[in-house]
Structure formats: structure tokens, C-alpha cells
Automatic annotation (TrEMBL):
<protein>
    <submittedName>
        <fullName>ATP-binding cassette domain-containing protein</fullName>
    </submittedName>
</protein>
<keyword id="KW-0547">Nucleotide-binding</keyword>
<keyword id="KW-0813">Transport</keyword>
<dbReference type="GO" id="GO:0005524">
    <property type="term" value="F:ATP binding"/>
</dbReference>
<dbReference type="GO" id="GO:0016887">
    <property type="term" value="F:ATP hydrolysis activity"/>
</dbReference>
<feature type="domain" description="ABC transporter">
    <location>
        <begin position="4"/>
        <end position="216"/>
    </location>
</feature>
<keyword id="KW-0067">ATP-binding</keyword>
Length: 216
């Protein structure tokens, strides 16, 4: 069964905003899917739905993912915690035993190239490095599905490009499944073999593009 399966879903917020209309979308194991569309078309709503943080008002949805990693723009690091302590957060909340937690943290930091920065505080890091910390934190919980909410939006172009390359390599190597939202068509096309184009209010998926992979 799919990690995310939406069939003809609708979502109207309690205040009456009709955010999604007749959206169908599937993410299977090992698939990395991007959703691209302008601001306000319902991308974040779609992602929050995938994480179980919103409820559909019509249609059918199933979620086969047991552990979800949610990667936002850099704002979610705790400023008073070091890199190590920020990455430790998920394991602490889940009650992962100390030894196992430390092993996972070290492995995740190594994966994102932050070994040696354990004692740094977020303000000492560049935006790209904070993004890596956020990704490392998700990696420690070994998710079946990663949700990315415009993680590169605040980054400069060079950093964005470099992180994009690393992310595609990592996901290709580990066969991680991901749902990535962005308003950048080039970013979506670079990162994924399947790009869903959303537009309108209420938002609807208006096109699906298969990108020859690896791109270009
Ligand atoms: P996007 O991520 O593409 O910018 P959103 O999913 O954030 O779009 O928003 C889609 C629509 O739903 C917008 O009109 C937005 O104002 C509205 N919206 C988003 N979140 C809420 C909310 N919690 N309550 C009411 N309306 C919301
Ligand atoms: P305590 O567990 O009492 O805080 P420790 O000296 O064991 O004392 O750890 C201090 C902090 O450093 C903890 O938040 C811990 O998670 C973190 N830490 C543990 N191992 C490492 C490591 N190899 N590199 C960086 N930080 C670490």
C-alpha cells in the first residue's frame, strides 16, 4: 500500500476557506515526488494532511507511513541547543535509549556532513548547515517518508544547488520516499522524477510531468 494515497480529496478549513479540490496523489516506497505551485494553492495543506495534521472534508486517503520526517525551513531549530542537542530532540521525545540515540545522532550528522560541528549553536551556522541539522534530526527517526516544506526557500542559489545535488544522491542511494513542495519548477524538476503541478483556489493538481532521471 502507498505511503501516501489521496483520492479525490477536498479540504475546507473551519473558517470556510476551500483549500483543496479533487486532489489525487500517490507516493509509493522509494518514490520522490515534488509538488510545485504558486503561493496559496494549497501545497502546505497537502503536506500537513500527509503528516496527519489536518483532516480531509471529503474523498479518501490512506497513509502507509509509520514514521514521518518533516523538514521545514530552518526556523525549527532550538537556538539554545547545540547541533548535537537539536538532532537529539526527536530521540529524547521518543524515549530512545541513550546509547542507541547517540549512535543514530552520530550517523545522521555524518550523513549530512556535519561531523565536527556537534557543539555549535544554530546561530553559528550558515543557512545551509541549519538545513542539514534539520535533515539530520529527521534521519535519526528512520522515517519511511520525508515531507519537505520548501526547505531551500531561504537559501542562496549556490547552497540550494549544492544541497539539492546531495539530497538527490542521498535519496537515490537509500531509496527514501519523499514528498517535496516548492514554488520553483526548476527545483522540482531537478529533485524528482515525478512533478505534480498544482494551481487554482481551491488548489487542484492540474498536470503531472515525468522528468527523465537523472536530470538533466
Ligand atoms: P501554499 O502552501 O501553496 O502557499 P496553503 O496550503 O498554505 O498554500 O494555503 C492554501 C489556502 O488555505 C490559502 O488560501 C490559505 O490562506 C488557506 N489556509 C492555509 N492554512 C489555513 C488555516 N490553518 N486556516 C484557514 N485557512 C488556511
Ligand atoms: P549529560 O548527559 O549529563 O548532559 P554528557 O557530557 O554526556 O552529559 O553530554 C553533554 C551533552 O553533549 C549532551 O547533550 C549529549 O547529548 C551531548 N553529546 C554526547 N555525546 C556527544 C558527542 N560525541 N559529540 C557532541 N555532543 C555529544
Amino acid at each position: 500500500h502507498p505511503l501516501v494515497g489521496f483520492e479525490h480529496i477536498e479540504l475546507t478549513y473551519p473558517g470556510g476557506t476551500h483549500a483543496l479540490r479533487d486532489v489525487s496523489l500517490t507516493v509509493r516506497e522509494g518514490e520522490f515526488v515534488s509538488v510545485v505551485g504558486p503561493s496559496g494553492c494549497g501545497k502546505s495543506t497537502l503536506l500537513r494532511l500527509s503528516a496527519g495534521l489536518e483532516t480531509i472534508t471529503d474523498g479518501y486517503m490512506q497513509c502507509g507511513a509509520e514514521r514521518i520526517g518533516y523538514v521545514f525551513q530552518d526556523a525549527t531549530l532550538l537556538p539554545w541547543r547545540t547541533v548535537w542537542e537539536n538532532v537529539a530532540l526527536v530521540g529524547e521525545l521518543d524515549g530512545v535509549p541513550r546509547g542507541e540515540r547517540d549512535r543514530r545522532i552520530a550517523a545522521a550528522l555524518e550523513t549530512v556532513g556535519l561531523t565536527g560541528f556537534e557543539k555549535h549553536l544554530p546561530h553559528m551556522l550558515s543557512g545551509g548547515m541549519r538545513m542539514r541539522v534539520s535533515l539530520a534530526r529527521s534521519l535519526t527517526m528512520d522515517p519511511d517518508l520525508f515531507l519537505f516544506d520548501e526547505p531551500f526557500a531561504a537559501l542562496d542559489e549556490i547552497t540550494r544547488e549544492r544541497l539539492g545535488v546531495e539530497l538527490t544522491e542521498l535519496f537515490a542511494a537509500k531509496r527514501f520516499a519523499g514528498l517535496f513542495i516548492t514554488h520553483s519548477v526548476s527545483e522540482a524538476a531537478f529533485l524528482s522524477s515525478r512533478v505534480l503541478v498544482m494551481s487554482g483556489r481551491p488548489g487542484n493538481i492540474v498536470d503531472e510531468i515525468e522528468v527523465p532521471f537523472p536530470f538533466p
